[in-house]
Amino acid sequence: MQRLLATMMLVAALLVTELGNAVQGQLPRMMAWSAYNLGTTGYNQAVAIGKVLKQNYGVTLRVLPAKNDVSRLMPLVKGRVQLSANGVATYFAQEGVFQFARRAWGPLPLRLVFTSNGDSNQSLAVAADTGVTTLAGLRGRRVPWVRGAPALNVSTEAMLACAGLTWDDVKRVDFPGYNAMWNGVVNDQVDAAYATTVSGPTRKLEASPRGIFWPPLRHEDEGCWARLRELAPYMTQHVGTRGAGISKAVPHEGGTYPYPLLIGLDRTPADLVYATAAAIVKHYDEYKNADPGAIGWAVERQVRQWVVPWHEGAVRLLRELDAWSDADQAHNERLLHRQLILKQTWDAFVAINHSEGDIFERAWRAKRVEALEAAGMDPVWR
Predict the structure, then answer these.
(1) Which end of the chain is more exposed for a tag (fewer CB within 10 A), N or C?
(2) What distance in Å separates the CA atoms of residue 310 and residue 336, rounded to the nearest whole number?
(3) 30-35 and 60-65 as β-strands: parallel, antiparallel, unpaired?
């Protein structure tokens, strides 16, 4: 047994050395990522990784905060940043839906570089002073809508659907961004808001006179989860033990998805992706405690079969780490094929459709559904 353990430790040490060699010379001296606003867990984790890149490789990482999904992805598409520490809007942009159904966007060939899967949940919190303890209790309450942020709005809608509610059953209040929404809860402008349980603004609500409470999404409630997944297939059941108002002693029965997602495009150089992911793996112990959600970047926590495909550079690294199976590859290829169908459909559609605005978007949504169903794929949003 001792000999086996010694052998495993030697292999691990050699692997760490090889990862260090793989990173050297593959990263530019200056890098830029887009991320959520200052103070959010996505921004904090990006900054923490940037610190280890600077300390170990002399790489200066500039993290550009952005208030919504569109403003996070625009710099990536325009080539102003190499990567984006994004959220589930990655999936919406891949699908060409919601804000990304416009002529200026369309489905994007996005790829996963690495993801964070911590002990937190993604859910709808309520101000504790409302007395609301279930999602059904939000009927008639003030619920926020963030302009240009389908990730927040669709996820909020899915949470309401769990309780059999729609936007018609609540009082919708519009906000310009994520932080403005959470300030709105603290300032008693709304009664609830969506976030990861470890996001900085949730701590602000917890410390405020209003307090914070996370209504549960009971895992045995099949109706709730069926309605939720009709709108949010990216959600998986999870018991959160980390965040504002929750702990191992007071867990939250709910759901989650990887966040943040470090993403690039299909054209992002494979060597850059490989080296970035290798640095994240090699220096995990140096940043894992920098933010409550940072533990989620560990190799063993990666969700390899999700709704967005992995970049070839990341796949190469996962194979070397013996963390990529034939089933993972088959799943990835199906997702890549889905993206191909979407791109071909979009290119053909925009070539012949010269309408604008709502007319264009409605026509695209119909064409998208038609193409995916013809290919035997679920369009999700009809």
Answers:
(1) N
(2) 9
(3) parallel
Is 130 within the bounds of a domain?
yes
What is the CATH classification number for the domain harbouring 204? 3.40.190.10
Range(s) of the domain holding residue 47: 2-117+259-334
298 plus 329 within the same structural domain: yes
Is the same domain home to 111 and 126? Answer: no
**46-82 burial by CB neighbour count: b if 16+ within 10 A, else e?**
bbbbbebbeeebebebebbbbbbbbebbbbbbeeebb
Residue 151: closest CA among 261, 49, 238, 304:
261
Residue 74 in domain: yes
DSSP tag of 136:
G
E-strand stretches of 128-211: 142-146, 171-175, 192-196
Is the residue at 29 inside a domain? yes
Please report, in tens digits, the pLDDT of each residue of the chain (382 residues total): 555 444 444 444 455 556 656 676 689 999 999 998 887 888 999 999 999 999 999 999 999 998 778 889 999 999 999 999 998 989 999 999 998 999 999 999 999 999 999 999 999 999 999 999 999 999 999 999 998 788 899 999 999 999 999 999 999 999 998 899 999 999 999 999 999 898 889 999 999 999 999 999 999 999 999 999 999 999 999 999 999 999 999 999 999 999 999 999 999 999 999 999 999 999 999 999 998 889 999 999 999 999 999 999 999 999 999 999 999 999 999 999 999 999 999 999 999 999 999 999 999 999 999 999 999 999 998 8
In total, how many domains does the chain have? 2
Instruction: Supply the pTM of this predicted model.
Output: 0.83
Residues 161 and 129 in one domain: yes
